[in-house]
Amino acid sequence: xxxxxxxxxxxxxxxxxxxxxxxxxxxxxxxxxxxxxxxxxxxxxxxxxxxxxxxxxxxxxxxxxxxxxxxxxxxxxxxxxxxxxxxxxxxxxxxxxxxxxxxxxxxxxxxxxx
Length: 114
Hints:
- With 114 residues, the chain is mainly α.
- It has 6 helices and no strands.
- Helix 1 (2-11) runs antiparallel to helix 2 (14-32).
- The chain is globular.
- The mean pLDDT is 94.
């Protein structure tokens, strides 16, 4: 389902994408629980739609939730790059809001995972 949402994102049909990504996330949480790698991916997909629609606060919240899920699921160094990518995105979103201190903190934390 999230793959279909990503197609809508690519086509610029963000209303449809948001509806499908939300539904995909809800289904994954019900079936897999809240602490599952696929849930983290869906949170980031939905965060991407929010970012593209200009809902930066909601996007930040979704990416932070995705990071919590990632940290709860992945406890080994093999997945540190995932943490870094998510933290980097959070930093960029804070930068878009003009929150330079928060952006710098997130981007500095992101660099520690590379």
